[in-house]
């Protein structure tokens, strides 16, 4: 099994043990994807982690978009903005960076 910063990841790059997550792992995943993390990325990553902690599920893109719009405003709660941050999918890539399981419904 592959590893990132000493933590095991599955064949799609998601953490095997969610407790292994830390910011260094997140930064390495982003670097591997060619993404330079900004404050805007961290806002979404932290939102995803809080959402998961509350609901014990990673949000699908539609749920994520609506929830971010509610919390951060419509300028950030839309697909265009989220895909600009996470080009491989705000649900899938965002959750991977956040150390969460792959959202249900993601291919």
From TrEMBL:
Cellular location(s): Cytoplasm
Keyword Isomerase: no
InterPro entries: DsrC-like_C (IPR042072), DsrC-like_dom_sf (IPR025526), DsrC-like_N (IPR043163), DsrC/TusE (IPR007453)
GO cellular component: cytoplasm
EC number: 2.8.1.-
Recorded superkingdom: Bacteria
Xref: NCBIfam families: dsrC_tusE_dsvC
Protein name: Sulfurtransferase
